Amino acid sequence: MNQFEDFITNIPDFPQKGVTFKDVSPLLKFKFSEVISELEKQIDWTGVQYVAGIESRGFILASALAAKKSLGFVPIRKKGKLPPPTISESYGLEYGSDTLEIHPSKEKGPLVILDDVLATGGTLKASLSLCKKAGYDVQDIAVLINLKFLNRLDEEGIKVKSLLTY
Questions:
Q1: pTM of the prediction?
Q2: Which of 10, 53, 87, 95 could disulfide-link 58, Cβ–Cβ 3.0 to 4.6 Å?
């Protein structure tokens, strides 16, 4: 068994009936440093200048890794949370739809995208598209948990690294 699985709590019917939420809060509370170190090992950091985090729990992982690697942090936020100018991308998720935004980048450079949980892939694909539209060269993508049974990103040619896979 993975050293982190015992610290992840399954919350049934959250945020709506039929969805089982993977709560990583206990994992971050007790194993944060280990999680960051293990995520760091998953990523090819060659030439990377920025780390993008997807709101909101992706911010935790991405900002910690950006600080540890002395790299810039790029927030990918929900609609209306960033001042203009922004680039937007709407997407579907397992229980509705949403829109993400990012600032356009004058400084082009290699970037890594980080998030906590990959479910259907809508959020991640929207983030990948936004980063490319903003002028970044996405070098790598990593998540803490990949719910592989809910997405087909491998089949679409989108390679995602993860610490835990279900």
A1: 0.94
A2: 53
